[in-house]
Amino acid sequence: MERFAGAGIVIALHAAALYGLLSHRILVVPDEVATLFVETITLQPPPPPKEAPRPQPEKPRPIEKPQPRQIVAAAPVLAPTDYVAPPPPPAPVVETPPRPAGPVALSDELSVSCPERRPPAYPPLSRRMGEEGKVVLRVELDEQGNISSARTAAASGFPRLDEAALAAVKTWRCTPARRDGQPVRAVALQPFKFVLQ
Fold first, then answer.
1. For 103-114, how does the pLDDT look when each residue is reduced to its tens digit (9 = 90+)?
2. C-alpha radius of gyration, the chain, whole number
3. In a domain, 39, yes or no
4. What is the number of structural domains in the chain?
5. How far is the CA of 12 from the CAs of 5, 17, 114, 196, in angstroms?
6. Stretch 133-138: mean pLDDT, rounded?
7. Most confidently modeled of 14-28, 45-59, 123-137?
8. What is the CATH number of the domain that holds 176?
9. Which of 21, 35, 92, 185 is 20 to 30 A from residue 7's alpha carbon, by CA?
10. 179: containing domain
11. Is the pTM of this model over 0.70?
């Protein structure tokens, strides 16, 4: 109970102090009162800038067209009794026999045109020695699609690998290349990679 009485006294004192401060307002009175007059000035917009006179484009000079000249061949006037020879007969057309064309160069590997192809066998000694490499062979096909010749274009560095690639290619059967619907000889480069796995 005493706590509530003490709190009530503190609240009453604060309320009285607040009332006293609010009832005695202190106004600060200036020593002199000055009157200010304000005039509003309306600004006129600036005149628009004058456009600079545009230069007159020069008139193009007319292009003088050259006068067409007529070229007249001087020919003697023929009398109706003059004889005019007929034109000579055309030269006979001589057909040249078709010359044999060289082999067709196949732009891609032979794997496209050779359905029967067996991969080369990795030589056992090359496996034991750890020999790996890439061989590129130049292969020629005859008109029937058989391998007519094969030789090493880029060696692998190991003769056993090169010989294994040559032996495998010689057993391939290919579709003959064609030119104008006729089977012809063909040449292609065939790479082989020997990689140990």
1. 666 655 555 577
2. 56
3. no
4. 1
5. 11, 9, 115, 103
6. 91
7. 123-137
8. 3.30.1150.10
9. 21
10. 114-194
11. no
